[in-house]
Amino acid sequence: EVQLVESGGGLVQPGGSLRLSCAAFGFTFSNSAMGWFRQAPGKEREFVGGISWSGGITYYADSVKGRFAISRDNAENTVYLQMDNLKPEDTAVYYCNIGTYWGQGTQVTVSS
């Protein structure tokens, strides 16, 4: 059974940083590209970024480019989302994704 478990969310001030983690179970993680998405209150879920199976290719939404970085540890079956220079508009529930599978999400709130 595929399972994705996000962690690392919280409350942070504007300009601060957080690192989210997503632990993956039930599939061959090292062969799989992974994605991060987010959903703000009252808005549709949107793409944040993705990473290839090897970690050699990453790609990001324009809204986070230069501030967020995705990495992975295939030995630990974990993908990370490093978020720097956070803005109030980054407030959302963040989800990791593979195919049709989603984690439960982790809340990120950026507020002073």
Structural commentary:
It contains no helices and eleven strands. Strand 5 (46-51) and strand 6 form a beta hairpin. The model has no long low-confidence stretch (mean pLDDT 97). With 112 residues, the protein is mainly beta. The strands form two sheets. Strands 2, 4, 5, 6, 9, 10 and 11 form a seven-stranded mixed sheet that branches. A four-stranded antiparallel sheet has the order 1-3-8-7, with no helix packed on it.
Shape: globular
Supply Rg. Answer: 13 Å
Number of strands: 11
Largest sheet: 7 strands, mixed
How many helices does DSSP assign?
0
Mean pLDDT value: 97
* Unreliable runs: none
What structural class do you assign from the helix and strand content? mainly beta
Observed structural traits:
seven-stranded mixed sheet; four-stranded antiparallel sheet; 112 residues; mainly beta; single chain
How would you summarize this macromolecular structure in one to three sentences?
The chain has 112 residues and is an all-beta fold.
